[in-house]
Amino acid sequence: MNSLDFQAYKPKGAIVINTVNKIADEVSSLIKQHNVLIDFSETTEIDSSALAMILQWRRDAEAANTQLSFSQVPVNLTTLADLYGVAFLFK
């Protein structure tokens, strides 16, 4: 697999406790077969459940030997990551 080949995924709307499972499952399926680029440019609200989802994606990517990248990460998500000590997720 060429590390430059990424499947893009763009969640839309809110990533909160009520929506996170659906989004997590969709991306986990992609990660098993592709490098994935998550583009947050169309998200409207994000809570701390998004961090748990991203940590799961990191584990999935490691298990599948694929890469996970992010773009347009909202400030509130990086602030939450700093608060919880997981800012490395977006480095």
Strand numbers in spatial order across the main sheet:
1-3-5
The helix count comes to 3
Terminal CA distance reads 22 Å
Largest sheet: 3 strands, parallel
Provide the CATH top-level class: Alpha Beta
Write the layout of secondary structure elements.
Layout: E1 6-9, E2 13-15, H1 20-31, E3 35-39, E4 43-46, H2 49-64, E5 68-71, H3 75-84
Parallel strand pairs: 1-3, 2-4, 3-5
Based on the model shown, name its key terms:
3 helices; three-stranded parallel sheet; alpha/beta; 91 residues; two-stranded parallel sheet; globular; single chain; Transcription Regulator spoIIAA; 5 strands
Gist of the model:
The protein has 91 residues and is of the alpha/beta class. It has helices spanning 20-31, 49-64, 75-84; strands at 6-9, 13-15, 35-39, 43-46, 68-71.
Structure description:
The chain starts with 5 loop residues before the first strand and ends in a 7-residue tail after the last helix. With 91 residues, it is an alpha/beta fold. The chain has one domain: Transcription Regulator spoIIAA. α1 packs parallel to α2 (49-64). Helix content is 42%, strand content 22%. The protein has helices at residues 20-31, 49-64, 75-84; strands at residues 6-9, 13-15, 35-39, 43-46, 68-71.
